[in-house]
Amino acid sequence: MKYLLPLFLFIALAVFLAIGLNLNPREIPSPLIDKPAPAFNLPILATPEQRLSQADFKGKVWLLNVWASWCVSCREEHPLLIELAKQNKVILVGLNYKDEVQAANAWLSKHGNPYNVSVMDADGRTGIDYGVYGVPETFVIDKRGVVRYKHTGPVQPGDLEKVFLPWIQQLEAEST
Amino acid sequence: MKFLYALMLSLLVYQAHAEIEYRDFKQPEQEQAYQTLISELRCLVCQNQTIADSNADLAKDLRRQVYEMLQQGKSRQDIVDFMTDRYGDFVMYKPALKLKTMLLWLGPVLFLVIGLATVWVLRSKTAVIDEPLSKEQQAKLDSILDKGDDA
Asked: Most buried pick, A141, B45, B108, B133, via CB within 10 A?
């Protein structure tokens, strides 16, 4: 027993270190979960003379995807967003974060536009309100306008089926 | 040549402008509060830097946010609350003393106590050797010593 103690200590330490190594330090829990989606009132990318606010989606389940033409990993998740848009199950709103109108429009026409609508957050203030620190980020917002889930970083293959579609299904079933 | 020299100098001036942000403060206390705050807030893009150290875009935006809030007369606590509401406790370099962060704060003390306890237990075990020998043991020792080394 006396000789086994160091072994047990070693195993305990190894387990803790293994857990630590497998945690993603970039994954910071969002304090916004279960809080109302922060307010915004931003010009629409396609028609900048019109504005859109989070309140316009009351009663609907929607995704807010933070993207930018300068964001390299946005390209990675883009095909998946296009796929999601084809299924037509949820409103996909783009938050065009710290971008230029021309660059953003060019990016959409080159790679395809999965968004029902994109709004422009040119100076990044709405981004701060949403606690954005690594584009792309995706928020799942329910019919009452409450943030229910946040995904940081590009949406990975399989995430749609395993994470987003179940969330959408669950939130669609909720009453307003 | 003179023109080239002037051009080079102007390039240097441009660089200096790009690096330093000029902030205008009405009171020195406000500037002090600004400097303290930006050296306590974490840049979430480059996680081991404060927003004062970082040149990341987000750090610039957060510095601007801190500056503007101070200009609006917001208190230090207002700004800390604003940041933690959006980015969570992680945004503070020095974590708040909460139930959730207790282990973080008390961990080192806990380990010190465990270490001291271990030392104390080990010491009290070895102390047994210092006890005087019993009569039998002493007799045995004497007989061994009498026989000498060659035994």
From this structure: A141
Total number of domains constituting chain A: 1
Q: Nearest Cα to A63, choosing from A84, A46, A39?
A: A84
Which helix (H) or strand (E) segment is B37 a member of? helix B28-38
Q: What residues of B are in contact with residue A133 (Cβ under 8 Å)?
A: 44-45, 58, 87
CB of A28 within 8 Å of a chain B CB? The answer is: yes
Interface ipTM above 0.85: no
Cβ contact A128–B47 (<8 Å) = no
Any A CB within 8 A of B72 CB: no
Closest Cα of chain A to B21: distance in Å? 17
Q: In whole angstroms, what is the distance from residue A35 CA to residue A52 CA?
A: 20
* Model confidence pTM above 0.80: no
Domain boundaries, position A139: 32-173
| A86 reaches B (C-beta below 8 A) | no
Residue B28: HSE in the Cβ half-sphere, 13 Å Cα cutoff: 0
Q: Indicate the residue type of A54.
A: Q
| CATH, residue A125 | 3.40.30.10
Report chain B (151 residues): mean pLDDT per 10 consecutive residues.
73 53 83 92 86 89 94 92 91 81 88 94 75 85 79 49
Closest approach of A9 to chain B, Cα-based (Å)? 14
Query: What number does CATH give the domain B1-96?
Result: 1.10.8.640
Place of tokens 């396609």: A46
Domain borders along chain B are: 1-96, 99-151
Amino acid, single-letter form, for residue B1: M
